[in-house]
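From the pipeline queue, job 12 of 40. The input is one protein chain; the requested action is below.

Action: predict structure.
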Amino acid sequence: MKLAEALSLRKDLQKRIAQLQSRIVNNVKVQEGDEPLENPDDLMGELDANLKQLEELIWRINATNMQCRNAKGESLTQLMARRDVLTMRVNTLRNVFNTASESQSRYSQSEIKMVTVVDVKKLGKKVDDLSAKLRVLDMEIQALNFSSELI
């Protein structure tokens, strides 16, 4: 199985587990004299089986991420950490850029005037450059996901 397939399976399992949790909660209490629509014990057994499968899958994904390397010898885990931090950097700078770019309407000369204290053009260029690096890094990660066999 390819790593990308395992990631998709993990996502499906996580959704299934969330659905099972909801179904269990919805069936643990019924009006006196009524029967639950589904047997909570059966649902709990299904939940346990899915959780066990998820645990094994997560372990295998993490092990693969540590072993899988790009052409520079960096692990997939290193690349994902870099992507996460770069995403945070881009989002922060984008928020700063948007705030600095906002125009201000004043109704009279007596209102307080706000001024931008950063170079908006330079900041916009930096956001664009970092966003491009993020896209390239994300494509590299995706390529490794589709070419790497799951451990």
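Job complete. Residues 1-67 form one domain.
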